[in-house]
């Protein structure tokens, strides 16, 4: 898979670990920063990653901040992004199967590395089920348009 990943300073260390594990499994990873532990604003990283994902069509995006919350709120402001903030493997699987999430967000200060990796794997091992879930995802997109 081709995966795009980004973080703020709070997510930097976890991002490196996730990149290393993804690459070990043969996936291609595009890292949009941040490049070190110096403070950055998570909405900037979210916007950059999401716009690139929509343009370049990587398979999905991973965003990491301290809690995963702010970066998820920011990502979901962007038309076409369905970002799921995840803290367990079942939700990770459902985020793909039911919601066709194209971005997952993780909290580096709330998850250990092993749990974070389990979540990433559960999402990647899952498939969108379509059918009624497609209808619901289309209704989410319609809400975005309606609200403009
Ligand atoms: C940065 O200190 C922190 O606020 C950020 O990483 C994130 O947790 C926001 O939701």
What would you say this structure looks like, in words?
It contains six helices and five strands, in the order E-H-E-H-E-H-E-H-E-H-H. The protein has 148 residues and is of the alpha/beta class. The model has no long low-confidence stretch (mean pLDDT 97). It has one domain: Ribose 5-phosphate Isomerase B, Chain: A, CATH 3.40.1400.10.
SSE blueprint:
Layout: E1 2-7, H1 12-24, E2 28-31, H2 42-56, E3 60-65, H3 69-75, E4 83-85, H4 89-97, E5 103-107, H5 113-124, H6 132-146
Parallel strand pairs: 1-2, 1-3, 3-5, 4-5
The structure holds D-ribose (RB5).
Class derived from helix and strand content: alpha/beta
What gyration radius follows from the Cα positions, in whole Å? 14 Å
* CATH third-level topology: Ribose 5-phosphate Isomerase B, Chain: A
User: Could you name the ranges where pLDDT drops below 50 across 5 or more consecutive residues?
Assistant: none
User: Any idea what the CATH superfamily is called?
Assistant: Sugar-phosphate isomerase, RpiB/LacA/LacB
Strand order of the largest sheet: 2-1-3-5-4
Strand content: 15-25%
Give the total of beta strands: 5
**What is the overall shape?**
globular
The main pleated sheet reads as: 5 strands, parallel
Q: What is the correct CATH architecture? A: 3-Layer(aba) Sandwich
Helix content class: 40-55%
Individual helix count:
6
Mean pLDDT: 97
First and last CA, distance:
33 Å
Identify the quaternary structure here.
single chain
Order of helices and strands: EHEHEHEHEHH
Distinct bound molecules:
D-ribose
Tally of separate domains: 1
């Amino acid at each position: 898979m081709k995966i795009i990943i980004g973080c703020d300073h709070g997510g930097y260390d976890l991002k490196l670990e996730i990149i290393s594990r993804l690459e070990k499994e043969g996936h291609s990873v595009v890292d949009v920063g941040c490049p070190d532990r110096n403070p950055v604003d998570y909405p900037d990283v979210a916007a950059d990653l999401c716009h690139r994902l929509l343009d370049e069509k990587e398979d999905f995006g991973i965003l990491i901040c301290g809690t995963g919350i702010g970066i998820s709120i920011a990502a979901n402001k962007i038309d076409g992004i369905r970002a799921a903030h995840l803290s367990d493997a079942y939700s990770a699987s459902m985020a793909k199967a039911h919601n066709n999430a194209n971005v997952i967000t993780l909290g580096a200060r709330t998850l250990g590395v092993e749990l974070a990796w389990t979540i990433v794997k559960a999402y990647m091992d899952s498939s969108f089920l379509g059918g009624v879930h497609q209808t619901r995802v289309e209704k989410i997109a319609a809400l975005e348009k309606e609200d403009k």
